[in-house]
Amino acid sequence: EFSVILMNGRGAFNVLRYGWGLVAGRLKHFPDVQLITGKDIVINVPAGQPVQADGDIVATVPVHISVDPEPLRVVS
Question: Global pTM?
Answer without folding.
Answer: 0.61
